[in-house]
Amino acid sequence: MEQKDRPPSQLMINLIKERHAIRDFVTQRQVSDELLFHIIEAGGYAPSAENQQPWRIIIVRDREKQKRIGEIAVERTIELFGRITPRQELERRLDYVRAIPSRERTIDWLITGRRFEYIKGEPETDGAPVLLVLAVEATHVGNSQPTLRGTGGVYGWSSYRHAIIAGSMLMQNMMLAATALGLGSCVSSVQLDHFDDVREISEMLEIPHPHWTPILCLALGYAKFPRVRGPPRQPPEEITFVDKWGENWQPKRESGK
Length: 257
Prior knowledge:
By secondary structure, the chain is an alpha+beta fold. It has one domain: NADH Oxidase (3-Layer(aba) Sandwich). The chain has 8 helices and 4 strands; from the N terminus they run ααβαααβαβαβα. Helix 2 packs across helix 6. The chain starts with 7 loop residues before the first helix and ends in an 18-residue tail after the last helix.
């Protein structure tokens, strides 16, 4: 069956499966404002508690700002994987990579920080031409914030946790939209995992921190190389229980499916 002849539901499932993290981009090929509009618009259709939409997105095209964000990611990666995490643990996490040379190369990319060079946006390392930085409302407390559009939470019980959940769903929408539009993307948080880095990036982008807090970055661009395989995924039977923890689900399959 041709792709165009498949039912819409199957096309959506295929799109989800086809999304892969891309870290090699055609740096010189810019992402148009029109495409960014469609991607961000799709992101905004993510659900949020009380429809409060506690998110803001900063488009980073400025080369110096993007380079500095990438430098922070590289520095933190070297600290986390090159100094703190034992090599045995890296090997354990990457044991799904069966080819030993590929596994060793991936470990080398981690401990040297090269895995996140693409964030800098430099042609020498096939960097992404644009970054989207996602900030969420850190004092997300129902209808007590006049800047929020929603109807307000009951007794103001909505919390910052809801803002993070909503922002994460917005990010997933944007990645899927990018895939549908023929773009590659990769989400990262390593440059926003440390309080000092959050503060620096907030100051750089004039985010009114701590009221708003940057939590994720999305690199966008045209993939330099096709990527058709990603790390293996656990099947539903392994990650799903019935009625209580430990009772693995045994789904009934239709014949021939």
